[in-house]
Amino acid sequence: MRVRLQDVAERASVSMQTVSRVMRTPHLVAPETVERVRAAMEALGYVKNEQATALRLGHTRTIGLLLPLLTMPFWTEVAVGAEALAHKRGYSLLLCDTSDSLLKEEDYIALLLGYQVAGIIYAHPRCRPNIHPSCATLIQSDTPVVVISVIQDDLPYPHVHTDDQRAGYVMVRHFLDIGRKRIAFVANNHESSLERIRGAHRALHESDIAGETSPVFFTTETYEGGRVAGQEIVSADGSLPDAIFATTDSITFGLLEALRSHGIRVPEDVAVASHDGLAASAFVIPSLTTIAPRAREMGMVCVDRLLSEEKALDARSLHVVEADLFVRASTAGPEYAAMDSLPTPISDPEAWACWRTRSAPPDAERVAVTRIPLDRILDSKEIDLAF
Description:
Elements: H1 5-12, H2 16-24, H3 31-44, H4 50-57, E1 62-67, H5 73-88, E2 92-97, H6 102-114, E3 119-123, H7 133-140, E4 145-148, E5 159-161, H8 164-177, E6 183-187, H9 191-206, E7 215-218, H10 223-235, E8 243-246, H11 249-261, E9 271-275, E10 289-293, H12 295-307, E11 318-320, E12 323-326, H13 329-332, E13 344-345, H14 349-352, E14 370-373, H15 380-386
Parallel strand pairs: 1-2, 1-3, 3-4, 4-5, 5-11, 6-7, 6-8, 8-9, 9-10
Antiparallel strand pairs: 7-14, 10-12, 12-13
């Protein structure tokens, strides 16, 4: 015999409306009531009819999460944060890993629309509405969407991101504060990395340091890419830089290995810093100075924006999630090798400026590294030529 909603209400001694609220918006119901209703459901073996719910609401209680590369720890953290809040609000999460493939991205957009998801968290979108039919279809649908990580002016949705330009600016200011001026950069060609390079350029310009003396080595976002870039930096004409900023931790791990293999000391000879704040960055030798976006918080903010009753009022709004600077041994010196600095919000100049007074690889792959002067990075044609 099929268990009805009325049966659950009677067992939990609440109204049917309360049972419905527990299933739809549990975060708006008293915790003890939620616990009592869920206990009644479990005792009676009640199974919610999701198809009936979808017919009534016009969508399922599922959120689609469209990620470019789930194997990257940053996106895993975003997914963890999104799932935690979605579950708390009575929703499930459907993960779609595009593997950085435009074709898969278009396929998953069609799939999520077909599943009638309640909303889509769209990370690093590559589809353009004036080029790709699936993107145009997405915009024409009534499906709520939040874009995460990069700002796309042609997508009429709320955006959630961290201030990548600010991150690059703060990291270069940190180098300058500890007396390093010959700064090189290692980056991939993702827009977020390019934004960090633009912020770095601004910091150098404010300090009257010429951009042409600060090369950018473009490579792949892998350990091997960082290792090959490190080899290029060591063998490049001219003097060795006294600081290197790599735009992702994955690249930096390989870079550190290349410097170590050539007997270059970090930070005595070259200070090294990065971006991403992966857990492993605290355990490499030397421990890595890095800027860590609050990835879990970004995932939670995306879910909150999707489910906000005012979402129709804030299309194209921008929500900036804070990132933190961790100063460690790779820039601050061996006295910090066994300790981890407290996180410092990059939006607070007074906080991060205080540091001015403190003095087994994967399978081999073929990686091409392209060197471009920093001043020319602002010209997108140069970046296109590099790839």
